[in-house]
Specification:
With 154 residues, the protein is an all-alpha fold. The chain has helices spanning 6-30, 46-68, 83-101, 108-122, 127-148.
């Protein structure tokens, strides 16, 4: 038995999948402009292209699910007790956008611990774990990009 929202859920899956696929194509095209340091290194475009490729695959899967979904399952219905999750999601999205805006203005090793702190707060992690992540994760990523991918993060 289908509910009256079956078509809406199917339509939403397809639209979100197509939008994400367009975003992936945009990322792939934009990474063409990234400089290649040498033929022996992965280069600065490797990581964004890897993520765009994974996201593109998942987007295609989402589109297929949208075409195959006939059950009428409601994905976007928020129960009262789960509305806080939406607020948490909006906080994370706002801080990621802010992080992107500060990208070339504030050094990576300053903005990244702040973003990690917000994420740890939203995910309600213990203070000790949060502090360790705030210190270790940005330094680890910085070293991966600098030494592994030969990309200098500001």
């Amino acid at each position: 038995m289908q509910t009256k929202n079956a078509g809406k859920a199917q339509y939403a899956d397809i639209v979100i999948g197509v939008l994400l696929l367009i975003f992936c194509i945009f990322i792939f095209v934009e990474t063409e402009k990234m400089p290649v340091i040498s033929k022996n290194t992965l280069g600065s475009a490797f990581f964004p292209r890897l993520l765009a490729g994974i996201l593109a695959g998942l987007s295609v899967l989402q589109i297929i699910i949208g075409f195959l979904n006939r059950s009428g399952e409601r994905y976007f219905y928020l129960e009262k007790e789960k509305r806080k999750n939406l607020f948490d999601l909006l906080i994370v999205a706002a801080f990621i956008i802010l992080y992107g805006l500060m990208w070339n203005k504030v050094p990576f090793l300053i903005t990244s611990p702040l973003l990690v702190a917000v994420l740890c707060f939203v995910f309600r992690m213990k203070i000790r774990t949060s502090v360790i992540l705030m210190v270790v994760l940005p330094i680890f990523l910085f070293l991966i990009f600098k030494n592994g991918l030969h990309v200098m993060l500001m």
